[in-house]
Amino acid sequence: TWIDNCTFETGYSIERDSGSGFVPLTSLNQNTTNYLDSNLDYGTLYRYRVAAYTYNNESQWETSSSVSTILISPSELKLNVISNSVIELEWQDNSSFEEGYRIERMSTAEFDVLVELQANSEAYSDTGLTPGDIYSYRVQAYTADNQSAFSGTKTDTALASSSFMDIDGNVY
Known about the structure:
Layout: E1 11-17, E2 22-29, E3 45-53, E4 62-63, E5 67-68, E6 75-83, E7 86-92, E8 100-107, E9 110-118, E10 123-126, E11 134-142, E12 154-157
Antiparallel strand pairs: 1-2, 1-3, 3-4, 3-5, 6-7, 7-10, 8-9, 8-11, 11-12
């Protein structure tokens, strides 16, 4: 976005630099104050510059600082206690180009990687849990070059064991 400081421009020229110098990107109509650039490469730094022009003249270029695309973090993390030893995690996949998802679980006082899942995953069942123990989880999207921020942390307790013995000595 930019401020339209000219009252008589014919339009605006936009150029983009992705590391090898500025190249023309597009021309826009007069009184335009924004442009949406799409189909960018993740992790690439981009710079833009804009100039107003008339049929006979062109203003000086206004150049942006460098910007980069980001990996959007998963959201809406939910925990479902399935049994006394299983907690299921579900989340919203907000990225279209992640290579996978990393789930971390709190053990003692810090998070450790529990598992890495394939792209577009939205659920995972953590099994073999100890009944009555408290478990905290967080999820992040990742690529080979970067990772998103973590989802919010969620905590739940594996159900306490409720087994009983019948008259014949069978445990349920």
